[in-house]
Amino acid sequence: MYLLGLREGTAYLFIANATGAFAALIYAFVLTYILAILVDKALGLRVTEEEYAGPGISQHGERT
Description:
The mean pLDDT is 79. The chain is mostly helical. 66% of the residues lie in helices and 0% in strands. The longest helix has 31 residues, at 12-42. The chain has helices spanning 12-42, 49-53, 55-60. The chain has one domain.
C-alpha cells in the first residue's frame, strides 16, 4: 500500500486536507454571520433591560 502524507515526505495530502478544513470553517462562519444579520434585521438580537435582568425578575417579579 502506497502512503502519501507527512510521514512519507510529501505534504500534498496534508495541505489538501488543511485547505478543505479551512474552507469549511470560513464557509460556516460566513453563512452564520449572514443568518445572524438577517435575524437581527427581522427580529432583533438584543435583549431588553428587563430581559437582561433574568426570567425570575422579568416574569415573576422575584427579588433576592
